[in-house]
Amino acid sequence: MKLQITHLYPDLLNLYGDRGNIQCMVMRCRWRGIEAEVTECRMGDSVDFLHSDIILLGGGSDREQQIVCTRLQRIRKDFREYVEDGGTVLAVCGGYQLLGHYYDTPDGRMKGLELVDLYTVQESPRLIGNIVLKNETLPYEIVGFENHGGRTYIGNNAAFGEVVSGYGNNGKDGCEGVQYKNVFGTYLHGPLLPKNPHVCDLLLTSALERKYGKAELSPLDDALEREANRYILKRVLEKNKTRGA
Ligand code: GLN
Question: From ligand 1's centre to the CA of 190, what distance in Å?
């Protein structure tokens, strides 16, 4: 078995080391004897949607998003076909915002890919801090860090998770991220997958199922990752309690 991972515009969209998510996917494949190959597509490179199994779109500043957004319009049609065909996508923060209809900032409107029915409007203050989510289909909480000025509204789509602590999509409706077919959009930055191996396996499973039919991932020894996840969870929840007291 082999998975082809495509990293879109790592030179522009790689805030807080979103690239670590790729390394996590590759290692969790290799430890199970699944081959994983990574292609980095920079501005100007063509994107091979036909042979991609997972696409990562990372986070970026408004300036970098603006540059990427023009480029994305050119691959929009092929990207949409990939998504509608069940292709797996992980889009983080700036990349997540660009999945939708638009991202409005005081400097104007950035047109999105319109792959998912959502939109984003920038407001002050920035929403920054540790965040904890609950996703009913996953065995334990998702922990992470968010830092965004954009407020995202996902309409009737499913959220990536319910906010247990933190701000999420807009700080109001208790939703974080989005899930549409095999597209996962989230504001959780940086080492999302190393901190949450269960989310990594969710992505790998969706990609393997699309490619090979049924896919059962062999279990890995996640004791350390699990302990780190629990530690962050405890720390965030305790801090909340102290604040509330
Ligand atoms: N520029 C976007 C915002 O501030 C996304 C930032 C990011 O990717 N962290 O909302």
Answer: 12
The two three-digit tokens of residue 40, written as one number: 């980095």
Confirm whether 93 is a catalytic residue.
yes
Q: What angle do CA 12, 16, 19 make, to 5 degrees?
A: 65
Residue nearest to atom 5 of ligand 1 (CA): 94
Is residue 189 annotated as a catalytic residue, yes or no?
Answer: yes
Is there an atom of ligand 1 within 6 Å of 190 CB? no
* Domain at 2-244: CATH architecture: 3-Layer(aba) Sandwich (3.40)
Whole-number Å distance between alpha carbons of 79 and 85: 10
Complete DSSP assignment for 53-71: SEEEE----HHHHHHHHHH
Instruction: Tell me the CA distances in angstroms from 159 to 16, 152, 165, one per residue in order.
Output: 23, 11, 15
In terms of DSSP bridges, do strands 35-41 and 2-8 run parallel, antiparallel, or are they unpaired? parallel
How much distance in Å is there from the Cα of 77 to the middle of ligand 1? Answer: 24
198 lines ligand 1 (CB under 6 A): no
Domain extent listing, the chain: 2-244
Residue 240: the pLDDT is 84
Residue 245: per-residue pLDDT: 53
What's the whole-number mean pLDDT along residues 131-145? 97
Catalytic choice (24, 29, 41, 189): 189
